[in-house]
């Protein structure tokens, strides 16, 4: 099966990652302003393993994807500028 690359695929991926990262930031702000009301506070290790570590990993992966896709979009725009 052959799948043709779409010229807007990078844009959709970029916007999706930005929205996902924004959702994570909103969650952090919500936890900060309610004093950690929805985080399991049975101990620092539990909080680290169940909330901090997954969120940090999520943000690191999202940042890497945003950087990669952003570079692809910038390269495409530069190539389009030079060909026109």
Q: Care to describe what's here?
A:
This protein has a domain of 29 residues. The chain is mainly alpha-helical and 84 residues long. It starts with 8 loop residues before the first helix and ends with a helix. The chain has 2 helices and no strands.
Uncertain regions: pLDDT < 50 for 5+ in a row? none
The major pleated sheet works out as: none
Please state the structural category: mainly alpha
Query: Given the C-alpha coordinates, what overall shape results?
Result: elongated
Separation of the first and last Cα atoms: 33 Å
Could you tell me the radius of gyration in angstroms? 18 Å
Q: Total number of β-strand segments?
A: 0
Helix fraction by DSSP (H/I, runs of at least 4): over 70%
Average pLDDT: 87
SSE string, helices as H and strands as E:
HH
Question: What share of residues are in beta strands?
Answer: under 5%
Number of helices: 2
Features:
84 residues, single chain, mainly alpha
Give the topology, please.
Blueprint: H1 9-33, H2 44-83
Helix pairs in contact: 1-2
Can you give me a brief rundown of this structure?
This protein has 84 residues and is mainly alpha-helical. The chain contains two helices and no strands. The chain has a domain at 56-84.
């Amino acid at each position: 099966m052959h799948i043709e690359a779409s010229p807007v695929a990078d844009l959709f991926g970029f916007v999706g990652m930005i929205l996902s990262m924004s959702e994570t930031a909103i969650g952090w702000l919500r936890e900060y302003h309610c004093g950690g009301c929805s985080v399991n506070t049975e101990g620092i290790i539990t909080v680290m393993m169940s909330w901090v570590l997954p969120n940090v990993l999520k943000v690191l992966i999202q940042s890497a994807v945003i950087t990669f896709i952003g570079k692809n979009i910038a390269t495409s725009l530069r190539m389009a500028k030079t060909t026109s």
